[in-house]
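Example with several molecule types.
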Amino acid sequence: MSPGPAAGATMLELRGITAGYGAFTALWDVALSVSAGEAVAVVGPNGAGKTTLLRVISGVIAPGAGTLAFEGAPLTGRPAHEIVAHGIAHVPEGRRLFPGLTVADNLKMGAFLPSARKHFAESVERVYDLFPVLKERRLQRAGSLSGGEQQMLAIGRALMSRPKLILLDEPSMGLAPVMVLRLFDLIRRVRAEGYTILVVEQNVRQVLKLVDRAYLLEVGRIRMEGRADELQDSDFVRKAYVGL
Amino acid sequence: MSLVDLVVNNPLLLAEAALNGLLLGGVLALLALGLNLIFGVLDIVWIVYVDLAMLCMYLIYFTVQVYGWPLLLGAAAGIALGVVLGLAVHLLIITPILNSPPVNQLLATGGLLFFIQSFATFLWTTDHKTVRLSLPTLEFGGMFVSFSRLIAFGIAVLVMIGLYLFLTRTYIGTAIRAVSQDRGAMALMGANPQRVYLVTSAVGGMLAGVAAALLIIQYSVHPFFGAAFGPITFMICVLGGLGNMFGAFVAAFIMSEIISIGGVAWSSEMGYVIAFALFIVLMFIRPGGIFAKRQ
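Resulting structure tokens for the full complex:
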């Protein structure tokens, strides 16, 4: 089982995060928290800054202002390869698999951290249990997998680092509608294994059924925050994003 | 003598040329793999690469021929120098300009090439320096092959097998292949990019050092050794597809066979002319290298 503190304790805490690319600011004064054992979504339209938010958390970009703490440890401005070692795994937008490497080698790279290497055999068995199709295709090049299989591999690769928190960026992107439903079921199973999840999605209706809480991000600012079922019922979210 | 003449009247000489081409190909492949490995990860062609090997050859020459070290010890020193030079080029030349356009980085290594060439001429003159070995020439069914070439080929093959195992079996080796496909994603796996670059540069430098040890027992070293072997090494990489290790391996043998057989059929200059002409033609037909997928 995934290690971690008692459910309910604050795991990830962002305060006053402002970040962007060069002169362009994509996030303004964002505050967000995720408790251990929770599943939290960040929803919002294209260009709202959702991907930037995950990239700040995983250290791909450093915030211009604000603080980032994980399990009480300040991680603001730490590089990506250090943040993974603290237990945050990022499944990036577009999956970013190593297309020329086999499925097995992609999973091996997920366990690159010395602490993860020691448990490689055990972790890979767990990933194959969760996604049996990856075991069948373990000697195939990742680039030859279908979109759904690639997304499973991207999630499996993240699990190999034995994370406490998993960041999922648009997991349903580019998938056929049937596959989207299956994928959300699989994410539910990952969650049931005890991982804490922060997911960014455009598929608002599906993701609100998956998570406990959600944040609504618009043009770089948090506009609304609440329990998933409350947001689902709010007129604003329903009209703007759920399409009911 | 012409090629037809050679095939019809002197097949044994042709076979000998082919065998020598094969043996030369092993060492060329080693250089090309080193250059390609670095390109795959850092997206920069180290124009100076064969000149680094040349410096290693000088070190082996001086330790063995002047200071009387045993050849194996001199070779070990040459390989160690290769590693140091690989790390130094990355830390001192590439790291400060890692985020500038690739052409600037390429030119920076090109500048280092001229520096090393002039420096070597200044220090060691343009004399050809040779490590003298009393190794026999072997005869196989009428074909003559120098024993030193055979040893060089054998060691080159062993080192390439080692490189293959390193790149496929170890975590850091697999990470080197992964970084060549997606630089950013490997950081998300917990790999420090700078560390991967350093390991790649060290392995690339080591391969230059091994190649130097294998070259010094066959050729004499002079300040323009890099100018003689550099272009052919670069051409092999491009022909196989830059960054494509398997392509470089195959292209090394194609080029060495052309040079060797052309050299026996006409003259060694003609062998190079044919190799370069074929290269230019192939670049028009397959600009991405012989193993590139058709657009």
